[in-house]
Amino acid sequence: MNDSAVKIARFFGKLLGKKNATSIITFLHKAADAPIMYIALNHYGILKGTDMKNSGEEFAIASLFKKFIDPDDIVIDIGANTGEYSLTLRKHLPLHRIWSIEPNTDTFNKLVKNVDTECFNFAISTIEGKQSFFVSNENPISTLGSLSKNSIPTNETLKEISVNCITLERLIKNENIKSIGVLKVDTEGYDFNVLKSGEAYLKDIKFIQFEFNEFHVYTRSFIKDFHDLLSSTHALFRLDTNFLHDLRVYDPKMEIFRFQNILAVRNDLVYEISKYIKR
């Protein structure tokens, strides 16, 4: 629903009163079989789809990351798949070092062909060494791939492959990384574990973007967990197409296990990005 439609809806809501407005909405829902829940969630940046523009990811890269990270900051894309996000990063950050990390070898081979970034074929995990990684047997380069078998609720059969794993802390130490401007994590419900594996270094990262969706039910990860991990150094927001929803004060109502992108902004940058926060 666009801004004009929202304003019109609010106007009629005030004009009719809450009770009458609710009755009309209920009637229209039954008459038109309109997906009220989907519309409501969509209005708050949830279920915006995976398109880079509509989901707000390109907005974050072009309007926030591009403006507020330094030339020497490294940008890391964990769970890069075949490179859509990395390509958008390169489009808006042509001079930055961008690392694209993808553990699935079949997918990694596609990634290397698609992107002009530094590509790494391993997984970020809380445990180092070889681990089982689960992918779709029917589509080996599907975005559905995870270290957690239970986090892939699909009717497809799964194929188990072996991947190399290191912690985020080990990556930072081994590569002697001085400054991370952006850390993007898309690991199908395993996102909290990825961040936890580099907990000591999170305070230095300017922007941390991760997905929150149905898969987190299976890994038992909550928004509360991310709040507890990050809120002392970062403020949490939900991405929308061209603005941010404020999640800085935790509320259990935030625990909506449907597709959304969460952005953690380091506290010293919150004032700088305040004009993008929806009031």
TrEMBL record:
Methyltransferase is among the record's keywords: yes
Protein's GO biological process: methylation
Keyword field: Methyltransferase, Transferase
A GO molecular function held by the record: O-methyltransferase activity
SUPFAM superfamilies: S-adenosyl-L-methionine-dependent methyltransferases
Stored InterPro entries: FkbM_Methyltransferase (IPR053188), FkbM_mtfrase (IPR006342), SAM-dependent_MTases_sf (IPR029063)
Protein's UniProt keywords contain DNA damage: no
Pfam families recorded: Methyltransf_21 (PF05050)
Gene3D superfamilies the UniProt entry points to: Vaccinia Virus protein VP39
Domain Methyltransferase FkbM: start-end pairs: 77-230
Designated name of the protein: FkbM family methyltransferase
Lineage, opening ranks: Bacteria, Pseudomonadati, Bacteroidota, Flavobacteriia, Flavobacteriales
